[in-house]
TrEMBL record:
Gene3D superfamilies: Metal-dependent hydrolases, Urease, subunit C, domain 1
Matching InterPro entries: Amidohydro-rel, Metal-dep_hydrolase_composite, Metal_Hydrolase, Metallo-dep_Hydrolases_sf
Any one annotated GO CC term: cytosol
Domain of life of the organism encoding this protein: Bacteria
Protein name as it appears in the record: Amidohydrolase family protein
UniProt source species: Bradyrhizobium zhengyangense
Domain Amidohydrolase-related per the UniProt entry, residue ranges: 268-376
Cofactor(s), by name: Zn(2+)
């Protein structure tokens, strides 16, 4: 089982040189000019041409060998439980496997699969505080798991949200997975959460686990959560007219997940593009779930939305990185000075007909991952889960 990942023990300086393509994660400028990135003590300090940057004193040098560097991918919708284990599939190392799929950050939508999960107010608050602190301490493989997302119940009062926020809880689990399933109650509690800096997500569509139920457009719009969770269903999606109504009726985040209805995912993407609201679209897996663990789930979503959804690949990557980072108020997800030095280094898969990584993704192929870096530390090299890349980076000095 993957346990605590190594952290830097002193001053560090990472230099990634000989980069063929830098994808920024930002919709407004998805491709950056440069062949080198410098990071010091886990933060990006410079991006540009090698000849123009100060690369002296590097503690780690990575030769990208002409490959592509993207921000670390963010999974906006996961259901962690304890450590790197999921009882839903009785599987260990699922977070580490996701790291090999380029995931460097995960956002919990509720620790709902915890065996014996408490429904009483005292118990659910205690579990949320425990999960928030435990996962931030654990960091499986280095992955940043933002956990501690309580599933709200009708008996809760404003003081409960104030107490959780003071203890470090910053997320709500999916509204609708617990006893709160009506719009007025949800809106009241979402308002309390927002007042104390806790971000909210709502279950959208048909029931997914025992205890959940249908959450339709009326409840979604009245609840007014910060993120419309799995708008394409988890697994069962709402009808198209309701999806359109949600897209047009609010300005909140539109989350598309791997474990949802693929046709509805493409429909949501089309509506968001028509509205000029592509910045609202973020990606998650909604795993682990009944369909299993999907280490390549975010890469598969990027490839599907680019190829079938006809979205340029460099923009599709933004949905899995910068869009989520901005919406979730994270310091990662974008390649810009001051952000966390979380990167995925990848290339087109061997034998893909695409001429380069962007064309191969737009043709529907998954890229091959050669390295992941979190907080300026190399965490993995050649991925055990993606197809082999045409070219791979290498650590040339450390």
């Amino acid at each position: 089982m993957a346990h605590d990942a190594p952290q830097a023990t002193g001053p560090s300086k990472l230099v990634i040189r000989n980069i063929g393509l830098i994808l920024s994660g930002a919709l407004e400028k998805p491709i950056l000019d440069g062949d080198t990135i410098v990071a010091e003590n886990g933060k990006i300090t410079a991006i540009g041409r090698y000849k123009d940057l100060n690369t002296e004193g590097a503690t780690t040098i990575v030769d990208a060998n002409g490959t592509t560097v993207t921000p670390g991918l963010i999974d906006s919708h996961v259901h962690p439980v304890a450590g790197d284990w999921t009882p839903r599939q009785n599987q260990i190392n699922w977070i580490d496997s996701s790291l090999h799929g380029g995931i460097t950050t995960m956002i919990s939508a509720g620790e709902v699969h915890m065996p014996g999960r408490p429904r009483d107010v005292v118990g659910l608050k205690a579990m949320a505080i425990f999960a928030q602190r435990a996962f931030w301490t654990l960091r499986p493989g280095g992955v940043k798991v933002h956990a501690g997302a309580p599933v709200i119940e009708c008996e809760m009062v404003e003081e409960d949200f104030k107490e959780m926020a003071a203890a470090g809880v910053k997320l709500l689990g999916e509204v609708g997975l617990g006893g709160v399933k009506d719009g007025p109650t949800a809106r009241k509690m979402v308002g309390w959460a927002r007042k104390y800096g806790i971000q909210s997500t709502i279950h959208t569509g048909g029931p997914s686990i025992p205890g959940s139920g249908l959450i339709d457009k009326d409840v979604v719009l009245e609840a007014d959560t910060d993120v419309v969770g799995h708008i394409n269903g988890g697994h069962t999606a709402l009808p198209d007219d309701q999806i359109r109504c949600i897209c047009e009726g609010c300005k909140r985040g539109l989350e598309i997940v791997h474990n949802g209805n693929e046709r509805s995912a493409l429909y949501t993407l089309r509506i968001a593009r028509e509205m000029g609201d592509l910045h609202r679209v973020i990606l998650g897996t909604d795993g682990p779930a009944g369909s299993g663990v999907q280490p390549l789930g975010i890469l598969r979503m990027v490839s599907m939305l680019s190829s079938i959804g006809e979205l340029p690949a460099e923009l599709a990557f933004c949905l899995a990185t910068g869009n989520t980072a901005r919406m979730r108020q994270l310091d990662c997800g974008l390649i810009e000075v001051g952000r966390a030095a979380d990167f995925v280094i990848m290339d087109k898969a061997q034998h893909s007909p695409g001429k380069n990584i962007l064309e191969s993704v737009q043709l529907g192929d998954l890229p091959g991952i050669g390295m992941t870096i979190i907080d300026g530390i190399v965490r993995t090299q050649r991925s055990r889960n993606t197809p082999p890349a045409g070219r791979v980076p290498e650590v040339v000095a450390k």
